[in-house]
Amino acid sequence: MALLKDWRLIFSVIVAHVLLYMTFSDRDIFWYLYTAANLFFISFAITSEKIDDKQKTESYLKYGILSGLLLYAVFLAGHFLLPYLPFSWDKQAASMYRWYSPQFSWHYIVLILVFIPGEELFWRGFVQKRLASYFNDLTAILAASALYASIFIYSDKWIWVIAAFIAGLFWGTLYVWKRSIPMLIISHLVFDLLLIVLFPLF
Fold it and tell me: Where are the transmembrane segments (predicted)?
């Protein structure tokens, strides 16, 4: 199978798991190591695949902002359902906010300039794009979203894994529709600013 010969894809996903395992090994170093991980994601993605940008600035800003608002609305609705779901997922979500929310000014800087571009360039612009060369778009979206979510298993928070999978499906579908990494970055930025900075859910 050709996919098994794609050493860049396989190698990068393995490295992503190693980096995230290290990142979640100690909450005190999370922001340092996740910054390093996303710098790797950015470097690897831009040297491996051409960055898709098939939308005009006005278009990707509009769709980016609207889609970011929409995804936040989905998570807001989910927030109200959490207390009624099993496995104490509301408590898991609350502890995520408590342990990993930005605390210092440089946290906000790397969130905007490193985390968000790194995740979109790598997971959609590289991983999903590579998978789409072996499978149809739906399979590529599902597989890339599962791989994206899988790196968060080391957080020991299954709610984070599920949230990442849902977000991956959303942004993966958006990527197939518009083929614009800048639009995804804007969407992710709007979503994160609402979820983490402006209107956190916990």
Answer: 7-24, 30-48, 60-85, 105-122, 134-153, 159-177, 184-201
